[in-house]
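Posted in: Structural Biology > Protein-Ligand Complexes

Title: Requesting predicted complex, 2'-deoxycytidine-5'-monophosphate in pocket

I'd be grateful if someone could produce the 3D structure tokens for the following input. Sequence and ligand are given below.
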Amino acid sequence: MKKIIIAIDGYSSTGKSSFARRIATEMEYIYIDTGALYRAITLQLAKTGILTSDNRIDRDAMKQELQRTEIHFQFNEAIQKSETFLNGDNVEEQIRSLQIANQVSYVAEIPEIRAYVDQILRDLGRERGVVMDGRDIGTAVFPDAELKIFMTSDLHIRAERRLKDLLPNQPDATLESVLSNLQERDRIDSSRETHPLMQAPDALLLDNSHLTMDQQMEWFQSILPNYLNDDCNH
Ligand code: DC
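-- Reply #1 --
Done. Output follows.
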């Protein structure tokens, strides 16, 4: 069967990665969490002091650091999930902290960083058969993706979902801190100059505020056949 690229973009904490992962499993495609690359770079820049706690970045040092930075994903059979490795270390847990979430949008605004990540993503998608979730996959990284989905959902519902995910590892997280982080990230992601978050004209809109994962998958299965035939040029 023809292999395609499925691009899933949308606002923070709309459940893009759970949805994308489930699609990848069902289709036996590779799932790529593109936000993890921006988060890993943010961690590296913070660790080296190139990114300060008030989000200032030494651009020259950043360019040099990028040349020394190697990021890859490795599938962990035990938990059946792919994990992020930064210069050989498993950083999957560290990159999910609220600290990194608070800083990552400032790093993702920088054109050189976006070019670095785009190159990795285009290599990973060369053979197609991938599901990628992010902010600019359908608009900038793979504008020729056969199937594009843009996800949104109610801000409060997103914040509650995100808090539930964070609490086991960060018991001091509050609904207020999560809400303000989501609003701030949405604002920066949507207003940056390079590849801002927006719905591609040919993307399907999925508002999952009141949908379970099974309902989202039902919707997905209903639209998928339209994008798998050979003469599809959506
Ligand atoms: O999906 P996420 O929350 O892990 O993404 C983290 C940040 O990375 C998000 O605030 C914006 C940025 N990002 C981006 O600019 N472009 C992408 N394709 C993916 C993520």
